[in-house]
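Thread amino acids onto this structure.
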């Protein structure tokens, strides 16, 4: 990228009507727009400036390296530690966009002093930022869905007495957020007058095997309080939490493997020969 010639900033450039001046995004406008809209917004702002400055090499460079950078950012997002501050990545690419505009295009002061250019509208910065945010978020959602679709959903079937062996396989992964879900159909019985699908999950959280009762299905939601009482009666304390609109119970107490078996065998009265569907993600 090459810096534009100095004569474009000369206040003596004659004959240009103020309303006809080409518009440029200032470094601070690009910083704000990139922070709002992500890497795609940053690429848009920088490219538009290079177009106005007729810097064709700059246009090619930002499209090439901007695309590579965006792909890299997407890849890094999926490998960041769970507790990483969410603001770090936006600050990095926003500052980088600011630096490019400040050093390879025109600074705010140069635009002010220029008789050739004027500032783009702040409303355009915000609108482009929000449009880019929606598009970038959609890309991330699609990627997450694609990754989720690769979870092993083979028709592995076990009976409830085989649950300990399945949990042992989970623990041997030693990978954070790896999980195994046991799904089955609850029969109608005295404690449970409405049949439905049950999902019983174990997940590695902070390095520990964790029992999870996610209230995503109708039956899991309906039976939440009864499961809390049943667990308490068996010496297990289930903590209730709500995140992202999803309520769940969890415990890392000793005996959670046995608790799962008891829930299936004693609470739901599932026949010992009934096979449970197993869904895994080994991280």
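Threaded sequence (283 positions):
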């Amino acid at each position: 990228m090459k810096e534009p010639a100095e004569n474009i900033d000369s206040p003596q450039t004659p004959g240009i009507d103020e309303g006809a001046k080409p518009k440029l995004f200032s470094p601070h406008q690009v910083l704000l727009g990139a922070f709002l809209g992500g890497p795609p917004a940053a690429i848009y702002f920088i490219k538009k400036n290079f177009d106005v400055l007729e810097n064709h090499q700059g246009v090619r460079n930002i499209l090439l390296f901007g695309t590579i950078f965006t792909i890299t950012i997407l890849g890094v997002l999926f490998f960041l530690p769970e507790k990483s501050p969410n603001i770090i990545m936006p600050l990095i690419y926003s500052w980088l966009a600011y630096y490019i505009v400040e050093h390879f295009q025109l600074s705010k002061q140069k635009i002010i002093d220029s008789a050739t250019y004027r500032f783009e509208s702040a409303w355009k910065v915000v609108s482009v930022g929000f449009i880019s945010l929606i598009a970038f978020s959609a890309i991330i959602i699609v990627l997450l869905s694609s990754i989720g679709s690769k979870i092993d959903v083979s028709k592995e079937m076990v009976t409830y007495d085989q649950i300990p062996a399945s949990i042992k396989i989970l623990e041997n992964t030693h990978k954070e957020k790896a999980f195994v879900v046991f799904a089955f159909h609850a029969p109608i019985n005295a404690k449970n007058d409405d049949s439905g699908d049950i999902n019983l999950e174990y997940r590695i959280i902070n390095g520990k095997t964790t029992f999870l009762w996610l209230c995503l299905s109708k039956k899991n939601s309906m039976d939440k309080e009864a499961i809390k009482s049943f667990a308490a009666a068996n010496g297990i304390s289930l903590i209730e939490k709500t995140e992202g609109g999803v309520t769940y119970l969890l415990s890392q107490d000793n005996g959670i493997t046995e608790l799962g078996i008891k829930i299936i065998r004693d609470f739901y009265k599932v026949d010992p020969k009934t096979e449970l569907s197993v869904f895994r993600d080994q991280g």
